Amino acid sequence: MVELLAPAGDFSALNSAVNNGADSVYIGLNGFNMRINATNFTINNLKKAVDIAHNNSSKLYLCTNTIMKDKDINKFKELLPAIKQYGVDALIVSDIGMVDLAISNDLEVHISVQENVSNYRTLKTLKKLGISRAVLSRELNIEEIKKIAKNSPIETEVFIHGAMCMAISGRCFLSYGLYGKSANCGDCLQPCRKQWILNEDNNQNTNTRIINNESKNTNFLIERSKDNSYKTHFLSPKDMAMIEHIPELLKTGVDAFKIEGRARASDYVATTTKVYREAFDSYENGNYKFNPKWLDDLNNVFNRGFDTGFYFIRPYEISGSNQSPIRKKDIGQIVNYYSKIKVAELKIWDDLKLGDELLIQGQTTGSIKHKVCSMEIDNERINQVKKGNNVAIAINEKVRPNDHVYKLIEK
């Protein structure tokens, strides 16, 4: 049975992952991972995160995949005994210098995609170092992945959904070159997601960044556009989505399939995990048939449009910002939940009516979608309510005080 690996940037996303069928969840420790601008977890709440995963029969992996300087390694060494004691199932690392430290603390080690593992010989070397799994390079096609997985002496893992980077396996220097914020230390400002203009010019301008295309013996200059009609996201890839290719994926022999998205909201984690869980289970149960609803559901959470990356030997397409036809509007929060009668009290700061689609998110609740079918104020049934009121709604799923309430609206 293959492993479905989901991301989590906070407790809401973690609960969303385990509640929707993730076999394992990967999280980042504050200051030591490639998503330092996400909420992240701390050494003080790491045990709570491990317990949530293990109580739901899921594994928990800890990302420590930034470039490590001596001061970083010395600081992290102090945390390793606690990480082991709390029951973390594996460390995901990109710095080889971290391997012996982890193994000496009896921790399992996985090599990050940042290492750009692209061949069998590298996997043999990693095994000698005591590493149990490698995340394969994003730039491999499906036939290359199949050959590597078949002969690999250790477990293999690949990405199947989420954001893609314009640099090889995410090892980008654009953010550092422009803003002094290193992507390789988890602090990427994503200039690739901005709109830029591409000009061809033989006169080098010291105030303009240059891309040199040697094959055509010409310089390409990147500068901020003064004319919106010429702007484009030519450095911004679409999101990967392999949901239409589940049989091909599961025939590769890869051990674990990974969803990207530790910086994304818990509704994204809930939906992507649920969709791929259903698809994997249907294939492994022998009754697989592609369900168009899977793609619809993925399209309704944050995405930049979909592509299949390098799986089928073609470069990915470019995209702009969120392509989902649905947006979330913050309309209120949960005041209380009465479990015996399955009713939630909401404090709302926007109008609400029967039939509205809600998204309720909380650190323990995770992410729940709910269609408003019944509302009351002071025991009187109503069809709609104006902002500024408290209202009771019937809802079977347990929600909690201070959970955020969003209205889902078509763009």
What does this structure look like?
With 411 residues, the protein is α/β, with parallel strands linked by helices. The protein has 3 domains: 236 residues, TIM Barrel, CATH 3.20.20.70; 60 residues, no CATH class; 85 residues, Translation factors (Elongation Factor Tu (Ef-tu), domain 3), CATH 2.40.30.10. Helices cover 24% and strands 27% of the residues. The chain has 11 helices and 23 strands. The protein has an 8-stranded parallel β-barrel with strand order 1-2-3-4-5-6-7-12, surrounded by 4 helices. The chain has an 8-stranded antiparallel β-sheet with strand order 18-17-23-14-15-22-19-20. Strands 8-10-9 form a 3-stranded antiparallel β-sheet, with no helix packed on it. Strand 9 and strand 10 form a beta hairpin. It comes from Methanobrevibacter filiformis. This is Putative protease YdcP. GO terms for molecular function: peptidase activity. Keywords: Hydrolase, Protease. Belongs to the peptidase U32 family.
Beta strand count: 23
CATH class category label of the largest domain: Alpha Beta
Strand order of the largest sheet: 1-2-3-4-5-6-7-12
What kind of sheet is the major sheet? 8 strands, parallel, barrel
Poorly predicted sequence stretches spanning 5 or more consecutive residues: 206-226
- The name of the CATH superfamily of the largest domain reads Aldolase class I
Helix content estimate: 10-25%
Dominant shape: globular
Count, helices: 11
CATH fold call of the largest domain: TIM Barrel
Structure class: alpha/beta
The whole-angstrom Rg is 23 Å
- Tell me the domain tally: 3
Global mean pLDDT? 88
**Which quaternary structure do these chains form?**
single chain
Family: Belongs to the peptidase U32 family.
Protein name: Putative protease YdcP
InterPro entries: Peptidase_U32, RNA/ubiquinone_mod_enzymes, Transl_B-barrel_sf
EC number: 3.4.-.-
